[in-house]
């Protein structure tokens, strides 16, 4: 069977872990490395050790688009990013596919199929048949996130079920869980893109809540435990519709 040698390149460790996990579920993909350093990845490509790169666009030192310009036709690339506006630029460089974060497993499998077809010229089985039997019991959606810790290369794993709500402040966020408050220097937008809807909803420019942990809605306020959280005016109509649809 054709084996496509892959690397995952991203400056966020949680994103690399997700891609590596997905690659392990596909029989014809072989993970030969992961890195947070685009220059290191470029050296691997130029050595001939890599067939396919899962590449983040927003990278320090060397952006994904700069990477594409340099590597040319030495490998195939699937872009991974949270920013849809770069899609057109990517396809101008002949990328196989463009995956928007957070990446669902079924969407990843469709991109893997495209890669298989480009490398072999052979149509592949339906995506649902590409997952090895040993992985069939693994949930298709992660039920946790990783956040940056208080030192370099330190990351904290937080289960979705433990999160009550998240508050965005000037340059950092506070994550309130069932047992603790965690502060991290990440944006509320970044966390919002990682969390599934439902159960998480952004109800204010400064707040994301878990609807599963919500005790009551009263007017323009959500209550989680004893904490009163405001519903922003621009979010009120869509959020109240969610509540009404469940009554």
Automatic annotation (TrEMBL):
Superkingdom of the organism of origin: Bacteria
MF GO annotations: DNA binding; phosphorelay response regulator activity
Classification via SUPFAM superfamilies: CheY-like
Keywords annotated in UniProt: Phosphoprotein
Response regulatory domain residues: 5-116
Residues of the HTH LytTR-type domain: 147-245
Modified residues (4-aspartylphosphate): 56
InterPro entries in the cross-refs: 2C-system_Tx_regulators, CheY-like_superfamily, LytTR_DNA-bd_dom, Sig_transdc_resp-reg_receiver
Gene3D superfamilies from the UniProt entry: 3.40.50.2300, LytTr DNA-binding domain
Protein name: Response regulator transcription factor
Lineage of origin: Bacteria, Pseudomonadati, Bacteroidota, Sphingobacteriia, Sphingobacteriales
């Amino acid at each position: 069977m054709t084996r496509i040698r892959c690397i995952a390149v991203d400056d966020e460790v949680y994103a690399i872990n997700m891609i590596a996990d997905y690659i392990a579920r596909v029989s014809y993909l072989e993970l030969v490395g992961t890195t947070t350093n685009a220059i290191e990845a470029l050296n691997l490509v130029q050595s001939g050790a890599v067939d396919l790169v899962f590449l983040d666009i927003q990278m320090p030192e060397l952006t994904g688009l700069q990477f594409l310009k340099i590597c040319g036709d030495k490998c195939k690339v699937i872009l991974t990013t949270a920013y849809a506006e770069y899609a057109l630029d990517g396809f101008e460089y002949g990328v196989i596919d463009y995956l928007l974060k957070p990446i669902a497993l079924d969407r990843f499998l469709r991109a893997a199929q495209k890669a298989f077809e480009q490398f072999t010229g052979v149509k592949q089985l339906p995506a649902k048949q590409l997952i090895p039997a040993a992985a069939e019991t693994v949930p298709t959606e992660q039920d946790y996130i990783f956040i940056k810790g208080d030192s370099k290369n330190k990351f904290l794993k937080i289960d979705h079920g433990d999160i009550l709500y998240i508050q965005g402040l000037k340059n950092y966020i506070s994550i309130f869980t069932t047992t603790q408050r965690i502060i991290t220097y990440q944006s509320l937008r970044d966390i919002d893109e990682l969390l599934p809807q439902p159960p998480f909803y952004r109800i204010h420019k400064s707040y994301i809540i878990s609807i599963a942990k919500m005790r009551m809605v009263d007017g323009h306020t959500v209550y989680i435990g004893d904490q009163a959280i405001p519903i922003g005016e621009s979010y009120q109509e869509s959020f109240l519709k969610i509540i009404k649809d469940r009554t």
